[in-house]
Design goal:
Helix content: 55-70%
Shape: elongated
Length: 673
């Protein structure tokens, strides 16, 4: 009869997310008769993987023996051994020699004076004999979680038996907490496992997997920018991510876009308990490091921390910092340590730290950011410096950084200033769109629309909402009448709305003639308003629509779109004339020139941080390679494009605006349309 002594199973939906490769390796090892040791830091998901594998593999063995120790029990001798063998003693007792049985019963029940010093050999042989007796009746699986908390006596006995079970159908499936990011910290636990045990590191989850985990636990609807912050702060640790998600769900005042996440007390306690051993001065130095972007000992000294080297060395000895040879930066052992340390500080302490860094940092963008965080209330001087820093970040190809700086600029801009706070918020939203952070952009636009009265601000915000919808434009249909009403008879504002209406005609209605008409109208309105940038975008749309329709005006429109003056940003936009030219070359089977064109576009948008354009041009390069017969290269590029699109939420739905879709829709239309 099969004997299985185990804890109640947990609901299946709580189990493994993002551990497919690791579980596959463990299953192969167990199927081949080997043992497995899972290792990784606290909260990384070792116990979840352990339970899943034990539930799966436990079905194929006769006996499952389990133990799971806690830190508070680690001083009690033989407790883990009692968990493992206590329920099978009746089954094996009569098969053990009397001295072994007596010693084992005394250890398991606590009756008598059994110790490893007095009954060492008898106890060791008793554990080994017990496992052999059980294995003679069928395979045995030992499942041990949190090996680091096993009492030393049980660990020694288990290791003695494990090293002598060769050829016996006894396997071990264990998990142990380790702290080192690299190295062999788990090696000493292998001595308590059978020879040939496979050690598998349970590592952090990707951002996409963290998003799936949060959805599974009911923390749905979080903006992708928030999920990104949760992933960064948690370091991909599932437990930490869930705690951060719970704190957000329970917070009556969730952080505004760009603000740091709330770190719950549970996580602060978990990661900061080692701070108690630090001096007050060392803790202050770590707080400065937590506020800096890429802190170095030199930066810490410039910020007033004269003994930075000694104090960071003290923190490294406690495992709070990671020291790396030839690396100049001060790096926390886990991102959550930095976040929790910063969250624990008072508002005045944070302002003091940022004030020090605002003069110590060498980068003007970083100095402006710290100046803003050291300042309370509105301040036009600070707002202007932040706006300039955002512009510099935009020019460097860091639109995500520009968006964060723009939000800070808006926060410090007086209501009656020119440009006003809403204009700066909208610039931040547009930077967020460029960076692929569509949820953040949408949130900012909605915030502006809730109170803005200026037509220009409202129309610009509506455009952000529409752009953030991407190919799901039908879901924001109600926006268009409101945008037209806000635009009034202003040709500059009407240009923006009719350009989006051109895309709507194409994406939602599949009406090429209407799309071309709206694109041409947008181009004419932009020309009347002297808005060359949007005129070029509208002409590029018109030219692309006419090209795909086979319209006779296509060459003439392309020439208009390529005339000077040009706009460098539009030239490399995925909806700009460069993209139109690439499409023309592809359709003309000029593959070499098409590859050269799209590769140049791809380099430029990467330099500028234009994520959505990067997705499109990666896809275009993949199409070029496919047409050239380079299928492997095409597949790699398509996967890269898909991965980037999924990470940023761009193009998750099928793209009905692809040229293939357009041609298919056109072929299905009656002649004359």
């Amino acid at each position: 009869m099969r004997r299985d002594f185990k804890e109640p199973a947990r609901p299946h939906h709580d189990l493994v997310i993002g551990r497919e490769e690791l579980c596959a390796a463990a299953r192969r090892q167990l199927t081949d008769g080997g043992s497995v040791l899972l290792h990784g830091p606290a909260g990384i998901g070792k116990s979840t993987v352990l339970r899943t594998l034990a539930a799966e593999y436990g079905e194929s063995v006769r006996t499952v023996l389990r133990c799971s120790a806690t830190e508070s029990e680690s001083h009690l001798p033989f407790l883990a051994l009692a968990d493992l063998l206590g329920l099978v003693m009746d089954e094996v007792a009569d098969r053990l020699p009397t001295p072994q049985r007596t010693a084992l019963e005394s250890a398991l029940t606590g009756r008598g004076e059994s110790t490893l010093q007095r009954d060492g050999l008898a106890l060791r042989l008793a554990v080994l004999s017990t496992l052999r007796v059980l294995a003679a009746r069928g395979p045995v699986l030992i499942v041990a979680d949190d090996l680091q908390w096993l009492d030393p006596a049980s660990t020694e006995l288990l290791g003695f038996a494990a090293r002598r079970l060769g050829g016996t159908p006894v396997q071990m499936l264990c998990a142990v907490r380790t702290h080192a990011e690299q190295g062999q910290e788990y090696d000493r636990y292998l001595s308590a496992s059978p020879p040939g045990t496979l050690a598998l590191q349970v590592g952090p989850l990707s951002r996409a997997r963290i998003a799936t985990l949060l959805d599974h636990r009911g923390y749905t609807g979080l903006p992708r920018s928030t999920v990104r912050d949760i992933h960064r702060t948690s370091g991909g640790n599932p437990l930490f991510a869930l705690e951060l998600g719970r704190a957000l769900a329970e917070s009556p005042t969730p952080p505004r876009p760009g603000e740091p996440l709330p770190v719950p007390t549970s996580l602060r306690t978990l990661v900061l308990n080692r701070l108690e051993a630090l001096s007050d001065e060392a803790r202050r130095t770590l707080l400065v490091a937590s506020a800096g972007a890429r802190p170095t000992p030199a930066l810490l000294r410039a910020a007033g921390r004269d003994n930075a080297e000694a104090e960071t060395a003290q923190a490294a000895a406690l495992g709070l910092l990671v020291t790396e040879r030839d690396a100049p930066f001060v790096r926390f052992a886990h991102p959550l340590i930095s976040a929790a340390l910063y969250a624990q500080a008072s508002a005045q302490e944070r302002r003091d730290v940022h004030a020090a860094l605002s003069t110590a940092a060498s980068d003007p963008i970083e100095r402006a950011r710290h100046l803003a965080l050291a300042t309370t209330g509105t301040d036009p001087r600070v707002a202007q410096r932040l706006a300039e820093a955002a512009s510099a970040a935009r020019d460097r190809g860091a639109p995500s950084v520009a968006a964060g700086l723009g939000l800070l600029a808006a926060r410090h801009t007086p209501a009656d200033a020119v440009p006003g706070p809403d204009e700066r918020r909208l610039q931040a939203a547009e930077d967020a769109l460029t960076a692929g952070e569509t949820d953040l952009a949408r949130d900012i636009a909605r915030e502006v629309l809730a109170h803005a009265t200026q037509p220009a601000d409202r129309v610009r915000a509506w455009m952000v909402v529409i752009d953030a919808a991407g190919h799901a434009m039908a879901e924001v249909d109600a926006v268009f009448p409101q945008a037209l009403a806000d635009a009034g008879d202003d040709p500059r504002l009407l240009t923006l709305v009719h350009y989006q209406l051109a895309w709507r005609a194409l994406l939602v209605e599949g009406d090429f003639a209407r799309a071309r008409q709206e694109g041409a109208l947008a181009a004419d309105l932009a020309a009347r308003a002297g808005d060359r940038r949007n005129e070029l975008l509208a002409l590029a749309f018109q030219a692309q629509a006419e090209t795909l329709m086979g319209h006779p005006d296509a060459p003439r429109t392309i020439k208009r779109a390529m005339r000077e003056p040009q706009d460098a940003r539009v030239a490399c936009d995925h909806n700009g004339v460069g993209s139109v030219r690439f499409r023309w070359l592809i359709m003309s089977d000029q593959l070499s020139e098409a590859r050269k064109t799209v590769s140049a576009l791809l380099r430029e948008v990467r330099r500028r941080g234009m994520v959505e354009a990067e997705v499109h041009f990666l896809r275009g390069l993949a199409e070029t390679e496919l047409r050239a017969g380079h299928c492997g290269r095409a597949l790699d590029l398509a996967r890269e494009s898909l991965r980037l699109a999924r990470d940023t939420g761009i193009g998750e739905r099928p793209a009905p605006c692809s040229p293939f879709h357009w041609r298919r829709r056109r072929a299905a239309r009656p002649t004359g349309h």
